[in-house]
Amino acid sequence: LNGDLLKLGMTFNSAETKFLDFVVDQNIPNPFKEETQIRFKIPHSTFVNFKIADLSGKTILFSSIKLPGGWNKIKVDQSDLPGSGIYFYSIEFENQIHWKKMVITD
After folding, report:
1. Where does the pLDDT of residue 5 fall: very low under 50, low under 70, confident under 90, or very high at 90 and above?
2. What is the pTM of this model?
């Protein structure tokens, strides 16, 4: 191995590690009836954008909040949403966005 190849490998691993520092778990429980929680990890304290959209892509709920680095939780109550059905939520950290699907039952 020459030095350039080793340096490329280290750069790739570093970028991969940075990406893995932003993690969004599936909401639990899913489907849910009354409330659900979304757990996610960000590498440092910063503002994150949280959004819930319906199947047509219309924003139902949006919040931008500063949170500490590490694991955080967002609680979603059924009363925050217009009714049962399928929704998509996203958490945006810096230039990365993770989307997940959640289902509300009657």
Report:
1. very low
2. 0.79
